[in-house]
Automatic annotation (TrEMBL):
Entry similarity comment: Belongs to the complex I subunit 4L family.
InterPro entries in the record: NUOK/Mnh_C1-like
UniProt entry tagged with the keyword Translocase: yes
Lineage: Eukaryota, Metazoa, Ecdysozoa, Arthropoda, Hexapoda
Membrane-spanning parts: 6-22, 29-52, 58-83
Organism: Culex pipiens pallens
Primary role: Core subunit of the mitochondrial membrane respiratory chain NADH dehydrogenase (Complex I) that is believed to belong to the minimal assembly required for catalysis. Complex I functions in the transfer of electrons from NADH to the respiratory chain. The immediate electron acceptor for the enzyme is believed to be ubiquinone.
Protein name according to UniProt: NADH-ubiquinone oxidoreductase chain 4L
Catalysed reactions listed for this entry: a ubiquinone + NADH + 5 H(+)(in) = a ubiquinol + NAD(+) + 4 H(+)(out)
Cellular component annotations (GO), alphabetically ordered: mitochondrial membrane
Amino acid sequence: MSNFLLYYFMIVMFMFGCIVFISTRKHLLCTLLSLEFMVLMLFMLLFFMLNFMNYEGYFSMFFLTFCVCEGVFSGLSILVSMIRTHGNDYFQSFSILQC
C-alpha cells in the first residue's frame, strides 16, 4: 500500500512540474528549473520502481548522469546566447520582427 502512495506522489509531483513549466513564460531560467524538477521526479520514480523489482541501480545512475549533462549543456548554452544577444533572459524583450 505504501508503494502505491509513493508512486502516486511522484506522479502528482511530476504533473505539478508540468503545470509550472506550462505556466512559466517570463524567465528562461524558471522554465529550465521546472524541467530539471520533472527530470528529478522521473529519476525518483525510476529508482523506486527498480528497487521494488529488485533490479540493480546502474540504469538509474546512467539516466541521472545523461539527464543532468543534457540539461546543463542545452540550458546554459541557450541562456548564455540569450543574454549575449538581448542583455537579459526576459521573454517579453523578444520581438518576432527581429528574426
